[in-house]
């Protein structure tokens, strides 16, 4: 499935200018149909999967309780 620059920006939660910059840097592969750039959605699949795994890992680490410090002494 091919997306326009605007659709890609929405899909990746970026601005249109950021997507255009990535296209110019050749970090996003495109096809030019004579009028506009078209971007294959599948090229982002691996990246988005890795981002989901990273989010889950961070959430798990943040949800772990902080262990009590055995060296803490009461100063009452």
Notes on the structure:
- By secondary structure, the chain is mainly alpha-helical.
- The protein has a single domain, classed as Molybdopterin biosynthesis moea protein, domain 2 (Alpha-Beta Complex).
- Helix content is 47%, strand content 11%.
- The protein contains three helices and three strands, in the order E-H-H-E-E-H.
- It has helices spanning 5-12, 16-24, 45-63, and strands at residues 2-3, 31-32, 37-40.
- It has a three-stranded antiparallel beta sheet with strand order 1-3-2.
- A hairpin with a 4-residue loop joins strand 2 (31-32) and strand 3 (37-40).
- Helix 1 crosses helix 2 (16-24).
- The radius of gyration is 22 Å and the shape is rod-shaped.
- The termini are far apart.
- The mean pLDDT is 88.
Question: What topology does this entry show?
Answer:
Elements: E1 2-3, H1 5-12, H2 16-24, E2 31-32, E3 37-40, H3 45-63
Antiparallel strand pairs: 1-3, 2-3
Key attributes of the depicted protein:
single chain, about 80 residues, mainly alpha, Molybdopterin biosynthesis moea protein, domain 2, three-stranded antiparallel β-sheet, 3 helices
